[in-house]
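Readers of this paper often ask what the protein records in our data store actually look like. This encoding replaces a full spatial description with a residue-level series of whole-number codes. For reference, a complete record is included directly beneath this paragraph.
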Amino acid sequence: MNSPVPPPASAYFITPEKEAIESRILAIIVDNEPGVLARVIGLFSGRGYNIESLTVSETEHEKHLSRITVVTKGAPHVIEQLKSQLDRIVPVHRVVDLTRAAGEDGESGPVERELAIVKVAGQGEKRVEALRLADVFRAKVVDSSIEHFVFELTGRPSKLDKFVAIMAPLGLVEVCRTGVAALSRGKDGM
């Protein structure tokens, strides 16, 4: 009689119980060349870690460097292992845990922003309420008709989450988000 095969282990479940799972923002400076993103992302997926947000863009054209910003969750010791393994990938120049970096003013945590484009359809009171709440959140109307609005909103991810939740009962149709862009505080760069 065969015993059932256990599900594949995920890195989320191999940490000691006393270690809390934390959200982390990692900034990774890499060579801007084909296959680098796949190698970096493969490191996360190969260890069973989910990437909650991912942004990539060339930041220094002359040096052919790109910046990958990854938001993930994990136990502190496992995140340290991931950082160490990322540092060993040849096209990776630097890995910084922005969540742990403190600014010179003593304030910890990065400056982080995200862009969302949110479509809301509705008429009558719901339409008026959607427009009023968008103003409170400083969302900009970028498209509209007599049946819908498309709002543009930037801010911390938690602000965008709240805006989307408030728009849901008012006729939320669709949401597109860019992912987190983040910098450490203070005068120094990575």
